[in-house]
Design a protein that fits this description.
The chain has one helix and 16 strands. The chain has 210 residues and is mainly beta. Among the domains are: 53 residues, Complement Module, domain 1 (Ribbon); 48 residues, Ribbon (Complement Module, domain 1); 29 residues, no CATH class. The longest helix is centred in the first third of the chain and has 15 residues. This is Sushi repeat containing protein X-linked 2.
């Protein structure tokens, strides 16, 4: 007798938990109580970033270098978590962060580039001039000269240094002191009329009529 009743009970239970799916809505209802339940999408499989050899774009710094350390070790330079130290060649200055890291967003934490080191243009020298070996670039040397009759006082040469400043200070051209001339008396004219002239500096002046 028990064997004949069991199939009926199973059928009734199946009817009680039957549900209706509403296609495209993301919901379904159970027929026995008319309650609505939200369908949960299956979770996406987690991506193991450590197994991706190249996660961020490879760093390429013009006139510079990136020294990278990856959690994976070895020669990996752009995997997730890789940290790179940035530097520039001599004569160039780094603009931006000196250290960047590869983030889960597949981007580096910052951007940097190398800019050529330049000094400001030297001002003109009154009654003088200068000639530079490489313009205003680093290590450029500028030599000063003065016009005839003037003497240079100060640094004869200045060099553009790594910090973008010129060595030394700006020289000047000063007038050379003229030679000293003693006063002299000169008598000119005939026996009856003689004139006495005095040389004072570079100017002759008559002082006495005889």
């Amino acid at each position: 007798m028990a064997q004949e009743v069991a199939p009926v009970l199973l059928f009734v239970l199946a009817r009680l938990v039957s549900s209706t799916w509403h296609e495209g809505s993301g919901y379904y209802t159970e027929s026995h109580n008319n309650e609505v339940y939200v369908e949960e999408a299956p979770p996406e499989p987690a991506l193991d970033y450590r197994r991706v050899p190249q996660w961020c774009a490879t760093l390429n710094i013009h006139r510079g270098e990136a020294t990278c350390y990856s959690p994976r070790g070895g020669t990996y330079r752009s995997s997730l978590g890789t940290r790179c130290e940035l530097s520039c060649a001599r004569g160039y200055r780094l603009v931006g962060p000196s250290t960047v890291q590869c983030l889960p967003s597949r981007h580096w934490s910052g951007m940097a580039y190398c800019r050529q080191i330049r000094c400001h243009v030297l001002p003109a020298v009154l009654r003088g001039s200068y000639v530079c070996s490489a313009g205003v670039q680093m290590d450029s040397r500028c030599d000063y000269t003065c016009q005839p009759g003037y003497q240079l006082e100060g640094d004869r040469s200045r060099i553009c240094m790594e910090d973008g400043r010129w060595s030394g200070s700006e020289p000047i051209c000063v007038d050379v002191e003229p030679p000293k001339i003693r006063y002299r008396l000169v008598t000119c004219g005939t026996d009856r009329n003689a004139y006495v002239w005095t040389l004072k500096g570079n100017v002759w002046k008559p002082t006495l009529v005889i």
